[in-house]
Amino acid sequence: RSEPVVVPKDVDPHVFALNRYLRATPFIPKDAELMSCVIESGTATLDFNSAFYTSYGTEDESTVINGILTVMGQFKEVSYVRIIVDGKPIDTLGNLELTDPLPVTRTPGLESDGSSQSTAKS
After folding, report:
1. For labelling, which of 1, 23, 33, 65 has a CA lying 20 to 30 Å from the CA of 46?
2. pTM of the predicted model over 0.70
């Protein structure tokens, strides 16, 4: 069981969580960073710096994207993710298509607000 992580004051928890994931993933460049996260109508637009947009192996591409979708799935206000680099849309990451927003991956028990209330899914 992992310990809760304290997000520093004045830091966006989405940005903090994703940058923590990037730093923990060995094949992601050390200077890769999420610069901002803007959420509109359930879609989080994630703006990464150019170091993120590098050549990954095919398996690593999936690992990176799936990790991002899982990290963002902790936040109940986020249903989809759009990835941009330096403020500009990217169509692909290697062989992965990124033109449309991607659905997040929900992990039961990892909601960000810690509330015990359940919400009905339609």
Report:
1. 1
2. yes
